[in-house]
Amino acid sequence: MNQSRENWGSRMGFIMAAAGSAVGLGNIWRFPYMAGANGGSAFILIYLVFVFIIGLSVMIAEFAVGRRTSLAAVGAYKHYSKRWTFAGVLGVVSAFFIMGFYPVVGGWALAYVFKSLTGLLSNAGAIGDTFGAFITNPMEPLVWMIIFLLMNVVIVAKGISGGIEKAGKVLMPTLFVLLILIAVRSVTLPGASAGLAFLFQPDFSEVTGQTFLAALGQAFFSLSLGMGCMITYGSYLSKEEKLPNNALIVTALDTGVALLAGIAIFPALFAFGMEPAAGPGLVFVVVPSIFAQMGGIGTLFAAIFFVALTVAALTSSVSLMEVVAAYLIDQKQMDRKKAVYSTGFIMVITGILSSLSLGVMSGFTILGVGVFDFFDILTDKIFLAIGGMLLAIFVGWVVKKEDLRDELTNGGAVPFGLFDIWYNVVKYVIPLAVAVVAVLGILDIAQTGLMLFGLAVILVLGIFSHKL
Ligand code: PHE
Asked: Any transmembrane segments, and where (predicted)?
């Protein structure tokens, strides 16, 4: 084990960074449109069940593995068993793939701060067209994406406590305050109650196998699980910290922000008579449209909203970049700066391809989808869920139970047999539940070829695990 390993500067710093990783585009950009597209309340209910039964337990497991080994994902798996190295590598691949599309959307958010302030809202009828024209433009979104990636490089290159922790401590509380402000404005609009009903009155008529896979994928994505990110963050955590408590706080914060984003968007959406199933453009089209109808103060609210979105995206993308960087630092003995610069360089290239796939390169498809969707669907619909399942199997069947007990209880006792409940959930319930949901969802999904490709990638990684 590495004596000179970096550590979080404080408990608050860790929580803010881990919550910063969890709270991101997943909560504010993706959660509302997923909920909107999957019928609202029923999706949200299934999502909440997955978050608190599967997500929370997996997060505790990731923290435990990370802190026990003081190693990032790949090293942590390898530490126990060479055969399992592939599960860590799958995490690094997932981080790369998520970073294939994430900075593109991060760039949109950044661009929209400036667009809101420079007249976007003055022509409410054109907001949808403006978004379409913007994301399909061959140059403009690339510039914003690269600026967004550069911000990541600067933060991650500064290291754990100097960069990521400092940024999270300032930016996360700002985000909470901003979102509450917007939510309050939204629910006080006349006609807002229809939006709250859409969010909170369960209607199971639209639930299919896909709904479950979508909700599970969203739970893993939103909590930053199933790809070693929380293993990596846990590896920098001091031995005194109580892991279950920290995991509960992070999970609650993440869920709170997603619900808050829903409360900020849907009541206003219904108040203005718009469509809930607007897709990925939801925040970028509907939110400015909502604010455009509020006059001058709306401009300010819109700009604030996009600052919040950019902040949330940034504290998440740094954690994704850190997973790749930590792998190069821990496993390839690379210097931090060199690791971050080379990682950032490759991400600029995947980001460019991904952004262009929405416009000039839209004719180019891999297994039926464009580059952006390729990265998005593969990670969200398979890699994270299978990654989480692998972690649960690993923790339940490979890691010694007594090591886990020691890690989770800090040597003390836990009330109500909670440790054993958690252990059995991880060992039996999660592997089974994820398998069932994955099969149901994959049978039900349109992109069968892509799904099979994803499974093949995991299989190949598994077979060559001894070489990784
Ligand atoms: N949780 C982040 C979000 O909601 C995305 C993310 C996924 C970050 C996986 C790290 C790891 O936007």
From this structure: 12-31, 43-65, 86-114, 142-164, 176-200, 212-236, 248-270, 290-318, 339-362, 382-400, 421-443, 449-466
Q: Is 98's C-beta closer than 6 angstroms to any atom of ligand 1?
A: yes
Distance 278 CA to ligand 1 centre (A): 22
CATH of the domain at 389: 1.20.1740
Q: Which of 439, 436, 437 lies closest to 451 in space, CA to CA?
A: 439
Q: Which residue has a Cα nearest atom 10 of ligand 1?
A: 224
Terminal CA-CA length for the chain:
20
* Nearest alpha-carbon partner for 381 in 215, 217, 222, 228: 217
pTM: 0.93
- The 10s digit of each residue's pLDDT in 9-49 is 666 677 777 888 999 999 999 999 999 988 899 999 999 99
Asked whether residue 451 is domain-assigned, the answer is yes
CA distance 405 to 414: 9
336 contact partners, CB below 8 Å, separation of at least 6: 157, 159, 325, 329
Residue that is written with structure tokens 């024209």 in the block: 133
Pocket test for ligand 1, best of 255, 319, 323, 378 (most atoms within 8 A of CB): 319
Q: Does some domain include residue 4? A: no
C-alpha–C-alpha distance, residues 193 and 269, integer Å: 11
Q: Is the CB of 310 under 6 A from ligand 1?
A: no
Q: What is the DSSP string of 378-434?
A: IIIIIIHHHHHHHHHHHHHHTS-HHHHHHHHHTTS--GGGHHHHHHHIIIIIHHHHH
In this structure, the residue with its CA closest to atom 6 of ligand 1 is 224
- Number of folded domains that form the chain: 1
Q: Is residue 6 part of a domain?
A: no
- Coil/strand/helix, residue 253: helix
Residues 308-338 have pLDDT tens digits of: 889 889 989 999 998 998 888 888 889 999 9
Distance CA 153, CA 144 (A): 14
Sign of the torsion formed by the C-alpha atoms of 129, 133, 134 and 136: positive
Distances (CA, A) of 392 to 296, 336, 389, 397, 399: 51, 30, 5, 8, 10
Domain that holds residue 79: 11-467
Q: State in Å: Cα 27 to ligand 1 middle.
A: 9
Distance 461 CA to ligand 1 centre (A): 23
Q: Ligand 1 centroid vs 129 CA: distance in angstroms?
A: 29
Q: Residues 120, 368: contact at Cβ < 8 Å?
A: no
Sorted by sequence, the CB contacts under 8 Å of residue 224 that are 6+ apart come out as 18, 21, 22, 24, 230, 316, 319
Residue 1 domain flag:
no
